[in-house]
Amino acid sequence: MGFRNAAKAESIHALFMQRRYHIAMNRRLLLQSLAGAGLSRAASGEPFPWGIASGDPWPDGVVLWTRAAAAGEVRWEVAEDEAFSKVVKRGAMRADPAIGHAIHAEVRGLRPARWYWYRFIVAAGASESGRTKTAPAAGDRTQRLRIAYISCQKYEDGYFTALSHLAAEDVDLVLHLGDYIYEGACGKNKIRPHPYPTATTLADYRQRYELYKSDAALRKLHARFPFAVVPDDHEVADDYAGLIPDWDSPADVFPQRRRDAYQAYWENMPLRGPGPRGLEMPMFRTLEFGDLADVHMLDTRQYRTDQPCGGKKAKNCPERERPERTMLGTGQQSWLEGKLTRGARWNVLAQQVILATLDLDPGPDESYPMDKWDGSPAGRDRLLNYIQARRISNPVVLTGDNHNNWVFDLRTRGGETVATEFVGTSVTSNMDGAEVSEEYGSALGAPHIKWHNSQRGYVLCELKPKTWTTHFRVVPYVTRPGSPVITKASFVIEAGRAGAVRT
Ligand SMILES: [Fe+2]
Q: How far is the CA of 43 from the centre of ligand 1 (A)?
C-alpha cells in the first residue's frame, strides 16, 4: 500500500469511526429519550406500569382497567373508603399476553351515585388506588351532573398541564373524544418527540400507548375519575373513513392496520366488552344518569362514507350533496334515533368532529372542511331534522378533533336553532395556540358562531334540571411545563331553549 493509499485508508477509517460514533450517540440520545418515557416504565419493575383506570359508569357498576407487567392472575378490590377498610367487591382475572396483559373487570352490584376506590393486586405488589363513581339509579331525580371533556393529546406537541389541572377539578365523569394518541412519526421542532416511525402494526400501536401512558398527569387523571372514551382518526391514521385510508397507507393493507389499531385501543382503554370482533369494534353506546342526562357516545369514523371533493378543506362540489352520504351509518343512526326519545332532560351527543357548518371562504364561494359533518350534509340534515320533528329534549353536542374551542347554534336548513354544540380544544395538539385559529378563523362572522378561541385546555359542563353551564378552561402555554389555568369564557343554556348565552 503506497503512502497516498494508506492516507486514504486512514481517512476512510476515520470517517467510518466518526459515523459509528454518531450512530452510537444517536442511539444513546434515542435511548435517553425513551428512558424518560415508555421503555423505562416497562423495565421499572412496577406490577402495573401503565397505571389504572375506570370507565363507562352504570348505576350498579363500572369497568376497571389496568395492564399488568406480566402474565398471571390479577386480583381487584373495590372499597367504599380510600383506606380499603370496607371492601365491598373482589374478583380475579388472568392477564393474557394475547391482549397485552390488559384487564377489563366489569364490576356489578355496587350502589348508585356514589364514589368507590379500587386497586389491583399481583404477587409482586399492588397498584396505586383509584377513585370512581357509579351513575345515579334509573329514574332517579338527579339534581346535578358534572362532565369534563378533552381530546387531542399530542405527546410531542407539549406538556399535559391541562390534565393536571383537570385532575384537581370536581367532576363525575371525564369524556375523551378522540386522538388519545397520534400515530405519526417524529415531527420537526417538537417538545417531546415521538421517537418512532409512523405506527402501522399492533406492536407499533402498543408502543405508542406505552409512550403516552408514561405521562404521569394522564395516569393520575385516570385514577381520579371514571372516563368514557371514543377514538377519532389518529388512534388509527389521519382522516381515515371506514375502511378507506386517507393517504398514508395502501388501501389493501389498511383493514389489517385498522384492526391492529382498534386492538391496541381496546387493550389500553377502560371499555366494556366485547372489544374488537373481526375487523369491527362496536363503540357507540349510551350512558344514563338518572332522569337528568343520557350521554350518547357516537362513532363518526367507523361507519362513515369517504370524504368528498378530495377531502381536507376543499371547494364545494356536487359529490358533497349526495343524499346517501353519512357520518354515523344507517345502523348507528337508527339506534341513536331510538335512544334520543327515551326522555332524559339533557341529551348529550358526545362525538368526534364538528357538526356545525363552517364555510371557510367568505363571500360567494364556498369551501368546507370535508372531514367533518360538512362533508356529509345529508347526514347532518337527517340528525337535525329528526331532532326538530320529534322535539328531542335538550340536545347538546360535545365535540373534539378541531384543536379549537367553539360555541355554535345548530340550525336546520330552514334556519331554526334546534340544538347547541360546544367544541372543546386540544390538550396539546398544535402547541400553544392563539386567540384565533389561523386555519379556521376565516369562518368567523357567520351568525350561528357564538364564540371561538384557539388555545389549549379542557371543558367543564354542569348539568342541572333547568340549566346547563359550560366553562372553557384554558392553559396559556403547553410548550413549557407549569402553565396556570384560566376560565376563558362561560355559557349557559336554559332547558327548553336551544342555543347558548354567554355569561
Ligand atoms: Fe387531533
A: 30
Give me ligand 1 centre to Cα 389, in Å: 33
Dihedral angle of Cα 260, 264, 269, 273, to the nearest 10 degrees: 50
Grouping H, G, I as helix, E, B as strand and the rest as coil, residue 413 is coil
* For helices 254-268 and 202-212, angle between their N-to-C axes, nearest 10 degrees: 40
Cα separation of 376 and 352, whole Å? 14
Question: d(Cα 451, Cα 445) in Å, to the nearest integer?
Answer: 10
Per-residue exposure over 108-127, b if at least 16 CB sit within 10 Å of its own CB, e if not: eebebbeebbbbbbbeeeeb
Within 390-454, where are the H helices?
Answer: none
pLDDT tens digits along 170-210:
999 999 999 999 999 989 999 999 889 999 999 999 999 99
Ligand 1 centroid – CA 345 distance (Å): 31
All cell numbers assigned to 181: 394518541
Neighbours of 244 (CB within 10 A): 16
Secondary structure (3-state) at 494: strand
Other CB atoms within a 10 A radius of the CB of residue 433 amount to 27
In angstroms, the CA 277 to CA 459 distance is: 33
Bridge partner list, 449: 408
Tell me the pLDDT band of 230, cut-offs 50, 70 and 90.
very high
Which residue type, as a one-letter code, is found at position 62? V
CA of 401 to the centre of ligand 1 (A): 5
Distance 125 CA to ligand 1 centre (A): 37
Give the Cα separation of 260 and 19 in Å (integer): 36
Cβ–Cβ < 8 Å for 320, 311: no
- Phi and psi at residue 10, in whole multiples of 5°? -60, -45
| CB atoms closer than 10 angstroms to residue 285 | 17
Contacts 24+ apart (CB under 8 A), 434-439: 437/403, 437/404, 439/313
Which pLDDT tens digit goes with each residue over 450-477?
A: 999 999 999 999 999 999 999 999 999 9
Instruction: Tell me if 93 sits within 8 A of 105, measured CB to CB.
Output: yes
Cα separation of 420 and 282, whole Å?
Answer: 26
Say how many Å lie between the CA of residue 406 and the centre of ligand 1: 15
Q: What is the mean pLDDT of the chain?
A: 93
- Quote the pLDDT of residue 39: 61
- CB of 260 within 8 A of CB of 313? no
At position 60, the amino acid (one-letter code) is D
Q: Is the pTM of this model over 0.90?
A: yes
For 32-77, the pLDDT digits (tens) are 455 455 566 877 889 999 999 999 999 999 999 999 999 999 999 9
CB of 229 within 8 A of CB of 55?
Answer: yes
Q: Mean pLDDT throughout 409-426?
A: 98
What are the start-end ranges of the E strands in 157-239?
173-176, 227-229
